[in-house]
Design a protein that fits this description.
The protein is an alpha/beta fold. It contains 6 helices and 9 strands; from the N terminus they run βαββαββββαβαβαα. Strand 2 and strand 3 form a beta hairpin. The mean pLDDT is 95. The structure holds pyroglutamic acid. Pyroglutamic acid binds next to strand 4 and helix 4.
Length: 221
């Protein structure tokens, strides 16, 4: 256990946003030691093209025992601990390169769904005990984050060594909501009660949540 390597990936900003908490949390954890294990952080572009090969080369180069991937789930108020990845690409918005697959598989011959191999319920229990709002989630969507979890699980299942893979969806940071509210007021484009995306969580709490998820995963590796 003391020699385990942990890969944390975080998606870059997308959808016209200037920051993605997933990328910031990844950067904060890069190089840290958790229970004597080294954390290696990597950013991922929000692009479906090349995602599979990036995943393959990260598994090859970093040789992690645990992979925790991070993404933003706009409007969410809790840490979503994703249980399942679907073999579906169905993008509501284009990715950062303009690609927008609809009704397509992540892997044409792949299983319909793959289950996260980190202990999702134990992670939820630990986060709640630490006072961090969190919930096991049964959908990671059908955009890049779902494809990322599916890709890691599928690639890891073909390795001889065991690699636990999981995905945490994170809320906005409070400063993003403040900016959004300022913009709403300025542009007078929408009544406040129509705005559903106001939930947020501090970056410190998000970092603590991911650290705890790693600690719990180490206990079961
Ligand atoms: N969230 C998106 C993709 C990148 C991110 O941070 C998603 O939920 O798929």
């Amino acid at each position: 256990m003391s020699t385990s390597r942990i890969l944390v990936t975080g998606f870059e900003p997308y959808g016209g946003r200037s920051l993605n908490p997933a990328h910031e949390v990844m950067q904060q954890l890069d190089g840290r030691k958790i229970a004597d294990c080294e954390v290696v952080g990597h950013g991922l572009p929000v692009a479906i093209q090349g995602l599979g090969s990036r995943i393959a080369s990260l598994l090859e180069e970093v040789r992690p025992d645990i992979v925790i991937s991070l993404g933003l789930w706009p409007g969410e108020s809790v840490i979503r601990i994703e249980r399942v990845a679907l073999n579906v690409l169905d993008f509501a918005i284009a990715d950062n390169t303009g690609e927008r697959p609809l009704d397509q598989p992540v892997r044409p011959e792949g299983a319909t769904a793959l289950m996260a191999t980190v202990p999702v319920r134990a992670i939820e229990t630990a986060l709640l005990a630490a006072g961090i709002p969190a919930q096991v989630s049964n959908t990671a969507g059908t955009y890049l984050c779902n494809a990322c979890l599916y890709g890691f699980l599928e690639a890891a299942s073909r390795l001889e060594r065991s690699v636990q893979c999981g995905f945490l969806h994170l809320p906005y940071r409070p400063q993003q909501i403040a900016k959004l509210l300022a913009h709403r007021r300025e542009s007078a484009s929408m009544e406040l009660h129509q705005q559903k995306e106001l939930a947020s969580m501090s970056l410190d709490m998000q970092v603590e949540a991911v650290e705890l998820a790693i600690t719990i995963s180490l206990h079961t590796s």
